[in-house]
Design goal:
The chain has 28 helices and 17 strands. It has about 675 residues and is α/β, with parallel strands linked by helices. The chain folds into 3 domains: about 260 residues, 2-enoyl-CoA Hydratase, Chain A, domain 1, CATH 3.90.226.10; about 180 residues, NAD(P)-binding Rossmann-like Domain (Rossmann fold, 3-Layer(aba) Sandwich); about 210 residues, Orthogonal Bundle (N-(1-d-carboxylethyl)-l-norvaline Dehydrogenase, domain 2). The strands form 3 sheets. Strands 12-11-10-13-14-15-16-17 form an 8-stranded mixed sheet, sandwiched between helices. Strands 1-2-3-4-6-9 form a 6-stranded mixed sheet, with helices on both faces. It has a 3-stranded mixed sheet with strand order 5-7-8. Helix 18 packs antiparallel against helix 24. The longest helix is centred in the last third of the chain and has 21 residues. About 50% of the residues are buried. The structure holds 3-hydroxybutanoyl-coenzyme A (3HC) and 1,4-dihydronicotinamide adenine dinucleotide (NAI). 1,4-dihydronicotinamide adenine dinucleotide binds next to helix 12, helix 13 and helix 15.
Length: about 675
């Protein structure tokens, strides 16, 4: 049953129960319509309370229906029928009232919320606009400027903010239903508030819309939905209610079928699926109540901060007292940064720091349920750390390494209990970046692997299982990105032109700017290791720059020059001359933005197909999440695999064939060719 009606005296209680998040499926819309008729016809009822079972109020339209044609009853009609009902409805909100859920609440005569509730119209995050009157009713209730903020950012507000905005009539403590029934009883004795659809809108000052357009466009970059949502609110302020709702619905239906909405939906659903991989269904993770980090450098401090943000007490182990001090300073700098940016109060920062115990005594680790090692990237150092950990940790504690490039099998070699060991690869800065690559060895048990996924959920991170190969999923693809960027230089492009093309594609930064920011030395170190393994990594120009000591911004220059104290990249004559020397024998081509993006993105897709084929990633969508959450791939493009599938794998193979014929990329791999011929990337999954 999706909707049940019960009674408390003259009050009808309409309970929505559509797990997991009470999404407005066709069946639920139908049931709500029927509930309005039933209550309208019931003479004994004076008012109705709309409340939801489970963890949340209605969290929005059912996203899984967006690939199908819209089926009646349509949500605008459901909201209109609640608004026009003979008896006043009271929305009793707990959890999230989002999108269509908030729109339903806006149809109600009253809205009350539990303290823990949050409310918003997050549609733009799915590449669409609200589609059931949200952009037309919201400004009538809370004002135009406030509605513009809420709708164009898609960010929800908590109950207190909602009350301040007059989005809810009251925030209540105690039993939500009891409070809502009291409001409904009271409503029967009071004049009904004017329905929102009948309210007028205040005028905005001259230039308001132009200013709003500028600021929304600047934030949205190439995402189309925020500006379209703004246009809907503008229409609501300039036309009557019916015209504006029709315009909003038309915009919603158009965007629902757009490429950006399909991409953003793919990412939304993939993120949810990633958190609970079916292969770990029914596997119980180990409890993690106290965590420890060994190494308090860049990564260790970030990981410790992330653990504290999630509420876990943290033990930080360093080499000696001075290093402990440095590690604690590194962590407190992170919290101070949060305070400066207004994210947390100074007392919260102090409380987070108070939950960190710094020590050089490994003995303290007997209390830890999970220990994450983040010491130097050196096999011997890491092995020594783990053999000490085995001596002091409880037998059921999970042990993890944050190595970037070393082989976790080798790090774990010789452990007495290798089954409790795995890789947890965080990205820098670890307290910010959402991606967590989870890397089991051949001996890691399912329960320990599940603990990695549970930890990711606790930290609010996106977990992706990766197999053991050089660079796991993300950094392995990054190697290809960089090699391609260099091939472009040798065949006529410049760092400035390549970076601009990749920004135009939607990346926050081009490959050369990014290397200058992160430092060229880490990749050089990795190439040295690859040479020692007998491999021949392709980085002729980067090798020369490193030999000159040009490691990026930190050494005053890398792919670009930097003026003293400035971060703006300036084209470098030395780099230009080095490229010319290395380009001897390369055919010079004319590159435009689209062909540059193709020459970088499509070889990444080729490598990703190999990764899938080798079983190093379980699902193509996982690779999309890695690139989006670890490397800034534009979310609205859905990740490289979604992008390639949408573009057509046959075309991708064709472009790669042409590039490889000119020596500008590797040949498309057999796996990619197979996927292009038969069933897409799905056919490579589950190996
Ligand atoms: N439709 C369908 N399924 C949804 C859904 C939705 N709107 N929102 C969440 N789900 C599903 C998830 O896919 C997941 O499924 P799974 O268990 O099979 O993996 C399950 O519900 C639980 O989701 P989460 O893991 O995200 O649960 P949380 O408790 O962490 O978060 C939430 C709950 C805050 C409600 C979060 O799910 C969320 O933000 N959902 C999206 C809300 C949204 O965008 N609403 C607007 C939709 S568009 C709209 O309403 C258009 C209208 O204007 C016409
Ligand atoms: P770092 O050099 O900033 O910090 C390493 C810390 O480990 C130092 O503070 C050092 O004192 C401490 N340490 C060394 N030996 C120790 C021991 N025996 N016991 C306790 N502490 C010890 O290094 P960073 O960048 O934090 O990297 C740490 C690990 O994380 C490496 O394996 C690295 O490859 C990996 N990594 C790094 C990323 C990055 O972007 N920096 C990204 C993802 C992983």
């Amino acid at each position: 049953m999706t909707v049940a009606i019960s009674h408390e005296g003259a009050i009808a209680i309409v309970t929505v129960d559509n797990p997991p998040v009470n999404a407005l499926s066709q069946a639920l819309r139908q049931a709500l319509m029927e509930a309005v008729s039933v209550i309208d016809a019931d003479e004994s009822v004076t008012a109705a309370v709309l409340i939801c079972a489970g963890r949340t109020f209605i969290a929005g339209a059912d996203v899984s229906e967006f690939d199908k044609p819209a089926a009646p009853p349509h949500l605008p009609d459901v909201v209109a029928s609640i608004e026009a009902a003979k008896k006043p409805w009271v929305a009793a909100i707990h959890g999230s009232a989002l999108g269509g859920g908030l729109e339903v609440a806006l149809g109600c005569a009253y809205r009350i919320a539990a303290v823990s509730a949050n409310l918003g119209l997050p549609e733009v995050k799915l590449g669409i606009t609200p589609g059931a009157g949200g952009t037309v009713r919201l400004p009538r209730l809370i004002g135009i400027s406030e509605a513009v903020d809420l709708v164009t950012t898609g960010s929800p507000v908590d109950a207190r903010k909602a009350e301040a905005l007059r989005l809810v009539d009251a925030v209540v403590g105690g039993d939500l239903l009891e409070n809502a029934v009291a409001v409904a009883r009271d409503a029967a004795n009071r004049p009904r508030p004017q329905p929102i659809c009948e309210r007028s809108l205040p005028a905005v000052d001259a230039g308001f819309w132009e200013r709003a357009e500028k600021s929304v466009a600047a934030k949205a970059k190439r995402e189309i939905a925020p500006l379209r949502a703004l246009a809907c609110i503008r229409r609501a302020s300039e036309e009557d209610f019916a015209t504006a709702t029709a315009f909003e619905r038309e915009t919603f239906l158009e965007l629902r079928g757009s490429a950006q909405a399909a991409a953003l939906r793919h990412v939304f659903l993939s993120e949810r699926a990633a958190a609970r991989p079916p292969e770990l269904g029914g596997v119980t993770p180990r409890d993690v109540r106290c965590a420890a980090v060994v190494g308090g450098g860049t990564m260790g401090a970030g990981i410790a901060a992330a653990l504290r943000d999630a509420g876990l007490p943290v033990i930080l182990v360093e080499r000696d007292e001075a290093a402990v001090e440095r590690g604690l300073v590194n962590i407190s700098r992170i919290f101070d940064g949060f305070v400066k940016r207004g994210r947390i109060l100074p007392e919260v920062a102090a409380e987070r720091m108070a939950g960190v115990t710094g020590t050089d005594d490994y003995g303290v680790l007997a209390d830890a349920d999970l220990v994450i090692e983040a010491v130097f990237e050196d096999l011997a150092v890491k092995r020594a750390v783990f053999s000490r950990l085995e001596m002091v940790c409880r037998a059921d504690a999970v042990l993890a390494t944050n190595t970037s490039y070393l082989d976790p099998e080798e790090i774990g070699e010789g452990l007495a209990q290798p089954e409790r060991f795995l890789g947890l690869h965080f990205f820098s800065p670890a307290h910010v970046m959402k991606l967590l690559e989870i890397v089991p060895t051949g001996k890691t048990t399912a329960g320990v692997l599940a603990t990695g996924f549970a930890l990711a959920r606790l930290l609010g991170k996106i977990p992706v299982r990766a197999g053991i190969c050089d660079g796991f999923i993300g950094n392995r693809i990054l190697k290809v990105t960089r090699a391609q960027a260099e091939r472009l230089l040798l065949s006529g492009a410049t760092p400035t032109v390549v970076d601009a093309a990749m920004r135009a594609f939607g990346l926050p930064m081009g490959p050369f700017e990014a290397q200058d920011l992160g430092g060229l030395d880490i990749a050089a170190f990795q190439r040295k290791a690859a040479h020692e393994r007998g491999e021949v990594p392709f980085a002729p120009v980067a090798d020369r720059l490193c030999a000159m000591g040009r490691f990026g911004q930190k050494s005053g220059g890398g792919w670009y020059d930097y003026r003293h104290g400035e971060r703006a990249p300036q084209p470098s004559e030395i780099v230009g001359a080095t490229i010319v020397e290395e380009a001897a024998g390369w055919r010079q081509e004319t590159w435009d933005e689209v062909s540059i993006a193709d020459a970088i993105i499509l070889p990444m897709v080729n490598e990703a197909a190999l990764i899938l084929e080798e079983g190093m990633a379980v699902r193509a969508a996982d690779i999309d999440l890695v690139k989006i959450h670890g490397y800034g791939f534009p979310r609205w493009r859905g990740g490289p695999m979604h992008y390639a599938q949408e573009r057509g794998l046959a075309e991708v193979v064709g472009v790669l064939d042409r590039l490889s014929a000119s020596g500008l990329a590797e040949q498309p791999c057999a796996a990619l060719r197979r996927a292009a011929e038969d069933g897409g990337f799905r056919s490579l999954e589950g190996r």
